[in-house]
Amino acid sequence: EEEIHIVFSSDNEDKRAVEQAVESILRHTESPVHIHYIGEEPLEYHPTVHFIDLNETIKKYNLSEFINPNNRTHLNYLNTNFPNFARLALPAILPDVSKVMYFDADTTILCDIAPLFHSILNDGLAFKSPALAAVPREGLKGFGNNPKIDIPLSFNAGVLGLRLDLWREQHLTEKIREITLSNQHEMRYKLGSQPPLAILFGDNFEHLPFSWNMPPKQNTLELAGRQERRLIWKETDKAPPEDEVCVVHWKGGIKPWRIKKTKGRPTLFRTFDVVDREEMRKETKERREAMHRQKHLQQQNAIQSPSPRGEERRERQQ
Predict the structure, then answer these.
(1) Which of 27, 154, 220, 226 has the most CB atoms around its CB within 10 Å?
(2) List of E strands, 54-194
(3) pLDDT score of 165 more than 90
């Protein structure tokens, strides 16, 4: 049976989210999985994850040619954040891997990945598989200043199945590079890694179930933590029953791990937040050690400083 390969990419700011996502995968998947992390530093709480240095990746695979210097807005970090573009170079980064699933850092996985992984992007007797699988969404009309680009059906690139062998065979990374370099000279689209993928693939992708990329409404995140309310999905008409949701995609401006108060974070995220759990263990251990030291000090002081009654008793005996 084919090996299961999973990829994450982030900078240190979002590394905590990746730790949480990896933990959620390991708790739900019984089959062996090979997890790769492209980042600035290895994962602290999952040391067996294969680490790929982000800075070396940027230089070696010319990720600067994928970024979008246009559209300087509050979302500019999406345009120029290198971890967002690492997925476009995966065929070269993992040259011996034929198929992967890529997850954005801001995801929580609630299902066993193995059945989906083995069922997607397989060649049939009379057809060849597409090179990409994703959850479909409404298309986008006119990227940037270019009304000619009209994509009736598209996808969200936060959860992807990728046939890397077909990417290499069809030179898809090079084709995306042509799109992004063209955009750097004359703006064809806004934002970062999503538009070039949408332009290249159009509707030629395998559809994943909606349950594998479910974004909650942003204004419900803090309520979900503070008041233990359930998450409310952004696209309620497509939402499966709650117990069938496989991937929660925390996309948008509010990220659970950036909410300062622990109790303000959604309970679902906290369930797999190993950083929070380890910090709590550390704090509990430090409190216990402090209490032990204080008790020991009190005992020492009692030995060294006898009580006044004890002194009186000794004086009478003399």
Answers:
(1) 154
(2) 99-103, 107-109, 132-134, 136-143, 146-155, 159-163
(3) yes
Q: What percent of the chain has pLDDT over 90?
A: 53
Nearest-angstrom CA–CA distance, 235 and 122: 29
Q: Which of 179, 185, 116 is nearest to 151 (CA)?
A: 179
- Residue at 275: amino acid letter: V
Residue 141: per-residue pLDDT: 58
Tell me, what amino acid is at 122?
A: N
CA distance 298 to 313: 22
The b/e string for 165-179 (b: 16+ C-beta within 10 A; e otherwise) is: ebbbeeebbeebbeb
Residue 296 has which token pair? 């020991």
Tokens representing 283 are 């704090």
Burial of 12 (0-12, 13-18, 19+ CB in 10 A): exposed
- C-beta separation of 173 from 216 below 8 A: no
Edge-to-edge order in the sheet of strand 4-9: 50-53, 33-39, 4-9, 99-103, 159-163, 132-134, 206-207
Token pair, residue 273, equals 């937040």
Average pLDDT over residues 251-258: 85
Beta-carbon neighbour count of residue 216 at 10 Å?
Answer: 24
Residue 77 and residue 54: Cα distance in Å, rounded? Answer: 16
This prediction has a pTM of 0.83
How much is the average pLDDT of 38-49? 97
Q: What is the DSSP string of 27-69?
A: HH--S-EEEEEEESS--SS-TTSEEEEHHHHHHHTTGGGT---
* Residues forming beta bridges with residue 136, ordered by sequence position: 155
| Alpha carbon distance 13, 23 (integer Å) | 18
Helices (H) and strands (E) in the chain, counts: 13, 11
